[in-house]
Amino acid sequence: MLLRLAYLAVTNAFAALRLLPMSDRDKDVEILVLRHQITVLERQLGGDTRVRFTPEDRAFLAALLTSLPREVLRRLRLLVRPDTVLRWHRDLMKRRHARTCRPNRRGRPPTVRSIRVLILRLVRENPAWGYRRVHGELTTLGIKVAASTVWEILKQEGLDPAPERVSITWADSCARKPMPCWPAISSRPSEGPR
């Protein structure tokens, strides 16, 4: 027993010497972390031999310990490795960033009103065009919009997105198209008199 008492006295003296170069803030953090680890262990008394940290425990320990340099973290008596604590902190920051960057609305953003008006105008002026043709014309104009968006806009307006919107006869179609300009002189070389 006397030998055990001498051993404890020497080890505690070295532990006290280790605390001398630490700042008061680092000592307070270490005390808080050790107390919290004791609380976690007390919650699990008689249970599983493996220590299980709840997400709240991980967040608390990560918030406390990330302010300390790695050398100090390695000297602390933690139930987990210092790299694990740093990973918890990274995960915590990642979740926080993801939560703040999440858009308020889910799904695809609404189509700009001017594009919607242009689509309806193209369909009104060219009733034989289907949604794919309108999409192709918008792409030619440099407007990036999906063909399915054009289809959705036409459906919302009560228009059939297919070219069968208006039944156009062949004669109507020919009447609308400009007449081709045929050359007055044939392109074939003329043969002279024989």
Describe the model.
This protein is mainly alpha-helical. The chain folds into two domains: 89 residues, no CATH class; 64 residues. Helix content is 59%, strand content 0%. The protein has nine helices and no strands. Helix 2 packs antiparallel against helix 3, helix 3 crosses helix 5 and helix 7 crosses helix 8. It is rod-shaped and about 115 Å long. The mean pLDDT is 77.
Number of E-state strands: 0
User: Could you list the spans in which at least 5 consecutive residues all have pLDDT below 50?
Assistant: none
Classification by helices and strands: mainly alpha
Shape: rod-shaped
**Tally of structural domains:** 2
Quick check: average pLDDT? 77
List the helices and strands and how they pair.
Layout: H1 2-19, H2 24-43, H3 55-65, H4 70-75, H5 82-101, H6 113-125, H7 131-140, H8 147-156, H9 170-176
